[in-house]
Amino acid sequence: MEFWSISSALLAIAVLAIGYFAYQLWLSPFRDIPGRLLYRLSPIPSRLDALLGRLANACEEDYYEFGDIYVTGPGVVVISNPDDCRAVLSTHKYTKNKFYQAFALIEDNIFTTQSADLASLRRRQLKHTFSHAYLSQMEPALLKRGILALEQRWDNLIANSGNPRAQIQYEAEFARMSIDVIVALGYGQSLHILGTSHEQVARWVHDYNVLAMVKLIVPFACTWPFSLLISALLKSKSEFVASVTAAANMRREQLQAIKAAGQKRPVDILQALLDGEDPESRAKMTATQVVAENIAIIVASTDIVAQTLTWTLCYIMLYPDTYHRATEEVRNAFPRRHIINYGEAKARLEFTEACLFEALRIRAATGVFLPRIVPKGGATFQGHFLPAGTELGVNVAGANHHQPTWNNPRRFTPERFLDNEKAKQDVFSFSLGARMCPGKNLALFEMLPTIANLLKDYDFTLPADALFTPDRLDTHGNPTVMPRSHRFTSVGPTYPDRDCQVIIRRAAEY
Ligand code: HEM
């Protein structure tokens, strides 16, 4: 009896499995879309790619193997054709998928929301924050906490090395700088008063990302008794929320004193969030919303700016002609003691800016796919009809390497952006349309002066034992680039301590 019930159960499972595989292979609406067999049959391979940090490599390599459209899981389709990507991203119709909800650890916010109304409301409330006018007012703080503090640190390292030079791990340097900048803008002056260090905030951001990932894999992880298993992460989140709340409260109190004394209001992200008003409804954000958005901004921006700067320096070092051309451009345009700001760099450093855009294109720190859901009525891409509810990945790496759009896309060629504003619009790294990165201008205000001033003020060389050098070519004849991994929301080097070493020396006076 027992034998028969076990074998019937096994038989039922076998029939179901065969039925499932037959459906995926011959009946599913995705059967004619290219893709790997295993990925078509099970979500596990692509989840493993994500878990093991292989997503960025997969996105780029799969584009080269399968082209504009491919299947990466049962009911999951990835697109790379720039026109298709634009069509999806330009509208709110293709909502973000549930991945983002895992990051809504305080409440739904500009980054996590699937609601077009909330996303649009926040953009209206924050429009002023990321405008060139407001960014220009924030720029002194940005330069002080960013490039000037970094140079001060590097000069100290050189001075303490007993040599005219020092060896640095630049990924860690950029990570430190970008957290300092966003913390300065998000907390204002209150950080030191609160007794919180920047390292502490970096740890909170890390834990926040880990907690979101845990919630993504185990949606009920935050409820008792499972929450006991992740109590350290939950404690870290509460501390993060408490510190951002305290900063906002402190600012509200300061404002009264500032007003009474007739002084100027502070200019930073915290103030912009407190002041942010929808010009249509006059709605402002509640106290909790201010905290949720401030944390969303801190989390969304920290790693990505650091990783973009890391890839930019990495590529410049692998292409000596590019390094010399950019350095020459900066040093010819500005005197040695001048601090280059964004407007000056934008106006006079076309090639240096092109290096940044080319790094954003060739190895986007967001170079995975942006997950969306096909709306009611379905949609057709590359001749394939995708029914409503299909998970759609907009492949940033694929679009950035799209072969008909980019000549020799695997080669780092900043020249492609010279006198070519349109080419910049074809880079998908900040996304575009309805949910485009609202921090793009802030990121550029931070990154371009950083690269420009560093090239002006330091000579860079790779250490003698560097593994990745201009003469170590890959199978395509281009310098081999250090390996990358996808972590949380950004793509960075897999072995930064090994691969991101560079020797810096103060540039001679000129
Ligand atoms: C190199 C730097 C940056 C890159 C490449 C980048 C890229 C992106 C991309 C691709 C998205 C779309 C994500 C998606 O749809 O899944 C995004 C969204 C977002 N970014 Fe950035 N970002 C950068 C810097 C920043 C900075 C500095 C801030 C903060 C001020 C910021 C805040 C945000 C926010 C709040 C969203 C969510 C917008 C929405 O969904 O409506 N980012 N970013």
UniProtKB/TrEMBL annotation:
<keyword id="KW-0479">Metal-binding</keyword>
<dbReference type="InterPro" id="IPR050121">
    <property type="entry name" value="Cytochrome_P450_monoxygenase"/>
</dbReference>
<protein>
    <recommendedName>
        <fullName>Cytochrome P450 monooxygenase</fullName>
    </recommendedName>
</protein>
<keyword id="KW-0560">Oxidoreductase</keyword>
<dbReference type="GO" id="GO:0004497">
    <property type="term" value="F:monooxygenase activity"/>
</dbReference>
<keyword id="KW-0503">Monooxygenase</keyword>
<comment type="similarity">
    <text>Belongs to the cytochrome P450 family.</text>
</comment>
<keyword id="KW-0472">Membrane</keyword>
<dbReference type="InterPro" id="IPR001128">
    <property type="entry name" value="Cyt_P450"/>
</dbReference>
<keyword id="KW-0812">Transmembrane</keyword>
<dbReference type="GO" id="GO:0016705">
    <property type="term" value="F:oxidoreductase activity, acting on paired donors, with incorporation or reduction of molecular oxygen"/>
</dbReference>
<dbReference type="Pfam" id="PF00067">
    <property type="entry name" value="p450"/>
</dbReference>
<dbReference type="GO" id="GO:0020037">
    <property type="term" value="F:heme binding"/>
</dbReference>
<feature type="transmembrane region" description="Helical">
    <location>
        <begin position="6"/>
        <end position="26"/>
    </location>
</feature>
<keyword id="KW-0349">Heme</keyword>
<dbReference type="GO" id="GO:0005506">
    <property type="term" value="F:iron ion binding"/>
</dbReference>
<keyword id="KW-1133">Transmembrane helix</keyword>
<dbReference type="InterPro" id="IPR017972">
    <property type="entry name" value="Cyt_P450_CS"/>
</dbReference>
<keyword id="KW-0408">Iron</keyword>
<feature type="binding site" description="axial binding residue">
    <location>
        <position position="437"/>
    </location>
    <ligand>
        <name>heme</name>
    </ligand>
</feature>
<dbReference type="InterPro" id="IPR002401">
    <property type="entry name" value="Cyt_P450_E_grp-I"/>
</dbReference>
<dbReference type="GO" id="GO:0044550">
    <property type="term" value="P:secondary metabolite biosynthetic process"/>
</dbReference>
<dbReference type="InterPro" id="IPR036396">
    <property type="entry name" value="Cyt_P450_sf"/>
</dbReference>
